[in-house]
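Ticket #4471: structure export looks truncated?
Reporter: QA, pipeline team
Priority: medium

Steps to reproduce: submit the single chain below to the structure queue and open the exported record.
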Amino acid sequence: MTQQIPSTEPELSGVRNFRDVGGLPTVDGRQVRHGVLFRSGHLAHATDEDAAFLASLGLHTIFDFRNASDQKLEGPDVELPGVRNVNLPLSDPADGSEFWKMVRDGEIEQLRGILGDGKGADRMINSYRTIIKERTAEHSQVLHSLAEDSVPALMHCAAGKDRAGLSIAVTLLAVGVEREAILADYLESNAKHRRYKVRRSASSAAGHSPEVMELLSPLFDARAEYLTAAFDTVEETWGSVDAYLEQGLGITPEIRERLRERLLD
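Actual output as written to the record:
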């Protein structure tokens, strides 16, 4: 039996929302092995100490789900020696660029118009549904890579919440992790020290006022209704998780078993 590595959560100075997803239980009584699957926000601002810690994990692959506009805003990931970097954008580079400019620079009336009355949460739910339905090729590539050779792996996007959260969730579904445990891990992104730092332009008179932050909160929260919408989309579109994995992602029972061998104790 593989020796279990204790799960540690270091205080990384320049990387938000880092964690090892080891320890999550499966429906058949196994658990995700520590030290094989990690998640975080982007690595562009990692300090030398952060990079040294990340290098110590023995990573094989880093999956970066950011798009070109994310990378332009935040910068490229730090290079870690001997680690393969796979950029797999989970949203179109142009998708929402004007929207995010409004988030950074918009005045209160504009933000009320695009985010008020539940519009912010609706946008997030629709985004999660769309990623599940339209990004099957990318999720298939991730799972095939993990089954072949890409562990230990780190998955991240900008905040480590939405695109990385969905990719982690799909991976955990594939190896049979309990749905309640997947949701609990997802919701950990709400911890204050994990949350993405909202950038607002100094030129906006509304700044970081309480109403602005309340309007923006649906975009930066991890909400159960978002991930539940993704799960519902799987059921509505394919009928079951098994059908989604096999028909939607091309993940055969043999590949799933290989994933379980790589990721589970």
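Status: closed, not a bug. The export was complete when the record was re-opened. Leaving a note from the reviewer for reference: Residues 119-134 form the longest helix (16 residues).
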